[in-house]
């Protein structure tokens, strides 16, 4: 194995006013369409019934009857409903259209602090005889949940760390690796929640981007050979807003 190349953990983005985030990615619709709001299911011509906590310095204001349209996908909904949805999420400065799932800005997650290391292994994976192997090692120590987690102030556990993951060291595998680094920086690889396998709450779990955790065996189903794996993980990354465009923007 070659020397490790650690990836640094992302720092949380500076707080932005939720109203500003909404108005960055949605524009006000003047003629209200005869449609229902996908969030509250009421007609857009009726005002949103969401009530926001009173705040002295709220500026700019979004009124209950303001209808907004997403700037790229064009879906319309109550801006106040979208604001309420944003306030219930991680408030990371990004929006996701609830209708078509288009992501505006950079979606980030709630992955706790840790370390992602990458190694090269000369041995080939089953199904990829023509190249070596990339090994990723994720290390996350136990800690205390932050405000973005299910039970702030309570501890979280970390089972099965460090976790070892494997990719073929070919062009597509290296592309997946680069996108996984972006996902790691955006705190999207892991989250704090309840384990699907053990039912344990308040523990660090995978966050919907599948990894291969077996190198030469396939006892768990998370091993090789799996001819569809790289394409599957690329589409899981894309559903989190991580595509080749992210690599171009960062280079
Ligand atoms: Zn609504
Ligand atoms: Zn949309």
From TrEMBL:
What pathway does this protein act in?
Answer: Protein modification; protein ubiquitination
Pfam families in the record = DTC (PF18102), zf-C3HC4 (PF00097)
Q: Which GO terms describe its cellular component?
A: cytoplasm
Q: Which GO terms describe its molecular function?
A: ubiquitin protein ligase activity; zinc ion binding
Q: What is its main location?
A: cytoplasm
Q: Which residues form a coiled coil?
A: none
Q: Which UniProt keywords apply?
A: Cytoplasm, Metal-binding, Notch signaling pathway, Repeat, Transferase, Zinc, Zinc-finger
Domain annotation RING-type: ranges? 37-101
Q: Provide a GO biological process annotation.
A: Notch signaling pathway
UniProt EC number: 2.3.2.27
Where is it localised?
A: Cytoplasm
Name the family the entry cites.
Belongs to the Deltex family.
Q: Can you name this protein? A: E3 ubiquitin-protein ligase
Origin species:
Periophthalmus magnuspinnatus
Provide the organism lineage as a comma list.
Eukaryota, Metazoa, Chordata, Craniata, Vertebrata
């Amino acid at each position: 194995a070659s020397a490790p190349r650690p990836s640094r953990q992302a720092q949380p983005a500076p707080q932005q006013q939720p109203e500003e985030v909404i108005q960055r990615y949605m524009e006000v619709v003047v003629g209200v369409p005869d449609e229902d709001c996908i969030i509250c299911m009421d007609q857009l011509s009726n005002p949103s019934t969401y009530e926001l906590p009173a705040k002295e310095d709220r500026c700019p204001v979004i009124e209950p009857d303001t209808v907004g349209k997403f700037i790229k996908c064009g879906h319309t909904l109550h801006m106040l409903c979208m604001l309420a949805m944003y306030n219930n999420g991680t408030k990371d400065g990004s929006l996701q259209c609830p209708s078509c799932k288009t992501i505006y800005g950079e979606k980030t997650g709630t992955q706790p602090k840790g370390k992602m290391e990458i190694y090269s292994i000369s041995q080939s994976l089953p199904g990829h005889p023509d190249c070596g192997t990339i090994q990723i090692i994720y290390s996350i120590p136990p800690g205390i949940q932050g405000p973005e987690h299910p039970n702030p102030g309570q501890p979280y556990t970390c089972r099965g760390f460090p976790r070892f993951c494997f990719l073929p060291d070919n062009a597509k595998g290296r592309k997946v690796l680069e996108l996984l680094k972006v996902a790691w920086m955006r705190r999207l690889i892991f989250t704090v929640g309840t384990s699907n396998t053990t039912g344990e709450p308040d523990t660090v779990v995978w966050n919907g981007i599948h990894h291969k955790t077996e190198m030469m065996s396939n006892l768990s189903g998370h091993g090789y050979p799996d001819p569809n794996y790289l394409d599957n993980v690329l589409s899981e990354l894309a559903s989190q807003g991580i595509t080749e465009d992210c690599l171009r923007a960062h280079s």
